[in-house]
Amino acid sequence: MWTSSRKRLARLEAAWQQPATRSAHFPLVTRYYDLVQHESTYHRLPDQTWADLNGDLLFELLDTTVSRIGQQCLYHRLRSPLADEAALREFDAAATLLAQQPGARGQALLALGQLTAHEAYYQVDLISGEPLPTVPGARFAPLLALGLVATLLGGFWLPLLWVGTLSLALTNAVFHFWQRQWIEHCVRPLLQLGRLHRAGRELQQADLPFRPLQQLAAPLVQLGAFVRQVAFFQVADSWLLELLKMLLLLDVLLYARCRVAVQQHAPAIRTVFEAVGYVDCALAVASFRQRHATCVPHFGPTAEGIRLQAGYHPLVLGCVPNDLTLAGSGVLLTGSNMSGKTTFMRTLGVSSLLAQTIATCPATAYHAPFCRVLTSLSLADSLPTGKSYYLVEAETMRQLLLACDAAPNSYLLLLDELFKGTNTQERIAANKAVLEYLQPRSWVMAATHDGELGALLQSCFAEYHFCETVTAEDWYFDYRLKAGPLTTRNAIRLLARLHYPAQVVAAAQALSAILSTQAQAESI
C-alpha cells in the first residue's frame, strides 16, 4: 500500500530515536563481517573478547540502523577497530552532521528505508567475487528452449513437428516448476539489487559531504544496465510473461547469465553496499549520542598512556562513572565479588573499542593511543574438546603473550583472576610471572583476589580497589574506584547477612583469623 513520504519519514524518524525493537538475526547480521574478516586490517576483535565485552548486547544498544545492509556494516565496524585518526574524524563529522541537520537526516532515512526487506541481508553474497550457485540441469535449458522454438516454427512446413512442440512444452513446464524454488532461493541476493542501486543514487544526489558517497558515480553507472536485467525476476503480474518463462525457461537462462555477471560487477556492488552501510552506521551513532552522554576521543602518542574521565558502561543502567590513568605502570584491581571490578574493566574495554570504531566514548573525556583490546574475563572449560578450565586459561594467556611479543606496546589487556583453576601458591606465582612479563609490552589491567600480588608487583603495577560496606542491617556498594590496596574483608560478614548458620559463620571467622596471623608471621 502506498504511503506518503511525509508519513514514511515520520515513522523512520521515530524509529531512529530508539534502538530497534526487531530481534537481531545474528547469523544474517554477521555475514558481511564473516566474509571480509580475513582481509588485512589493523585489528579484528576475537570471539572471546567480543563475548567478554558483551558485544552482541552492545550492538543491539547501538542498532538504530534502517537497512539490513546498515545492520551488517555496523556489526562489522564494531568488530574492526581502526588506527586511522583521519577516517575516525570523518566518521565523527558524518554522525554530527546527521544529528544536527534534520533535512539531511530525512533524505538519508528515506533512501535507506528502501532496504528493509529480509532479502537485503543476502546482498552480501554479491560482493564476494564468486559466481552465484548453479541451477541443477541448467546446461540443458538452452537446448530445451531452442528445441521448442525450432519445432514450433518448423511445424508450419512439417506439421508433424508440432507433436515435438507439445512434448517439449510439457518437458519445459515440468523443468520450470522443478527449478522454480531453487531459482527463487538463488536469486535472493539479486532481488534487492535495484533497491540498493536506487538508495545509492538518492544518497549521492542528496549532496551529503561523505567521502564514500563521493566515490559512487562510476559504480552506479556500471550497475545501471545490470539492474535492468535483474528486474526481470521481479515481474510477476503478467500472465503472458509467466507463460513465456515456463515454455522458454527464460528465468533459468537469465539466471545463468546473471550469476556469472555478478563476478564482473562485484567491485561496483561492494562500493555501493559499503557507502550505503556507512551512512546507516553514522545515523545509528548519531542516535546513540543523543541518548547517552558521550565524548569524541582524542588519540595521542604511546608515552601519554590512557586517560579515562567519568567513564561508564552504557549497558549498565545508572552506572557510576569513574576516572583512570593508565601510564607507565599496570593496574592491579582488588575487591570483593559484585563490587564493580569486572564491570569497570569492561567499561575501559568498551570505551577503547567504541573510540576506535565509531569515534564515540561513553565518558566525559578519553585520551589514548591506538591499541588493540584483548581480554580474559569469562573463560570456561571445554567439554567437547576435553579441556579443563586451567588448560583453557593457560592456552588463552599463551596467545596473549605471543601477541604482545609480536606487536609490543599496541595491546590493552583486561584480565580477570588469572589461573584461578589451580591452587593458591601456584596461582600467585604464575600471576606474578605473567603480569611482570606483560606489563612492559602492553597496557595491563588485572583483577585479583590475591592481596599478596600487590606487594610482589609493586614495582610495575599500581593498586586500585573497589569495596563494599556491610552493616548489621544491610550492605551496599558505592562502585567507586579507589587508589591503593583493599584493606577490608567483608566476605564472611556478608555470609552472616545472608543468614548462613551461625556455626558456619563463626567457624569461618575463626579460621580466617588464624590464617591471617600465620600470613603476617611468615612475612616478618
From TrEMBL:
Membrane spanning residue stretches: 140-162
Superkingdom to which the source organism belongs: Bacteria
Classification via SUPFAM superfamilies: P-loop containing nucleoside triphosphate hydrolases
Pfam family, one: MutS_V
Domain called DNA mismatch repair proteins mutS family: residue spans: 328-513
Gene3D superfamilies according to UniProt: P-loop containing nucleotide triphosphate hydrolases
GO biological process: mismatch repair
Keywords: ATP-binding, DNA-binding, Membrane, Nucleotide-binding, Transmembrane, Transmembrane helix
One annotated Gene Ontology cellular component of this protein: cytosol
InterPro entries listed in its UniProt record: DNA_mismatch_repair_MutS_C, MutS, P-loop_NTPase
Protein name: DNA mismatch repair proteins mutS family domain-containing protein
Organism expressing this protein natively: Hymenobacter swuensis DY53
Lineage per the UniProt record: Bacteria, Pseudomonadati, Bacteroidota, Cytophagia, Cytophagales
